[in-house]
Amino acid sequence: MAIQGRNELCGCGRGKKYKKCCGRFTLREMLAKLSAYAAANKQKNKLIERSLKFLKACEIDGSGAFLVLVNPVPKDDIIQWTFLGGRTVERDVREAVVTRRILAGYLPMCCLVEDKSIQSGWRGVIDATLIAEECRDEFVAFARQEAEIVAKTFDGKMPQEDSWMTAVPWDDLSYPGMPTKRRPAGTIKIEVNIPQRKITTAWEMLGGSMEFQFPNEDVTGNDAEDVLYEAHHIIEALKRVDPPKRFVDGDKVEIWQVVSDGENKLLGSVSVRVTPSLTRSEFDVKGRENAN
Question: Rounded to a whole number, what is the largest CA-CA distance in the chain?
């Protein structure tokens, strides 16, 4: 699923060279056109229904197929995308994710189908009819480009700093104005690598991780203190981030110092309690209410 050469025939089937067909649009132009379409789309229910049928049609012989939903509105040069599919996702959960993401302005880009017979491991399927004809060329060109980046990200072949995309987990059923889905409590590891100026935050229960860089000026020479200092900032940040990575009651946080020439050191751990305990006055009020 390589990006087409500019002088090759365009994959849309119109018989023109890519540079004179779908490839003539710049990324910014495609984003603008797709964003305008998403905002003006008056048939979202049909788009949701067809997206779910598209996902089902791509699941051949029980193989994993992932529907990629992309928010074409760039924010700080980051394009958000959601992927969902596979045999472990229940039907009602799929419908909830597709519905809420499309209502929030996301567009279905393609289905990525697991295919071990090809080198990349993924076969991209684009359904151009998901999008209205007036911006179909832009959709196909945009989908080809995004699908390759997402496929390489799945395979671990695309460094996070090069992918310029943020994956939104399928089990986060929220978008602005909707209730959130509370995740189960678990262990969160904060691993601080002083020599590389890098912090890795790993969620055991979500099977994912995020990396952050911190500046040279934060390093004092006392490795243990520096690790705890950086971990403290991450802990404060996790109190405010969007679900499902925000703290919930019962989370356990482990702070690790990454050691290049030996075993990593566990410097400390803490159990998180988000719900505040009742004060005496609140307890008395609740007691009177119960008594009545």
Answer: 81
Q: State mean pLDDT over 17-39.
A: 68
Over residues 102-161, the pLDDT tens digits come to 877 788 888 888 777 776 677 888 888 777 777 777 778 778 877 877 777 777 777 766
- Residue entry with tokens 């959130």: 180
Q: By three-state DSSP, how is residue 82 classified?
A: strand
Q: Per DSSP, what are the bridge partners of residue 271? A: 252
Beta bridge pairs of residue 113: 65, 123
pTM listed for this prediction = 0.52
| Torsion angle (degrees, nearest 10) of CA 259, 265, 267, 272 | 100
Residues 223-239: what's their mean pLDDT?
A: 90
Nearest to 166 by CA among 88, 240, 78, 85: 78
Closest by Cα among 80, 95, 85 to 45: 95
For residue 59, count other CB atoms closer than 10 A to its CB: 18
Q: How far apart are CA 134 and CA 181, in angstroms?
A: 37
Q: Which H or E run includes 6?
A: none
Cis omega (within 30 of 0) on the bond before 244? yes
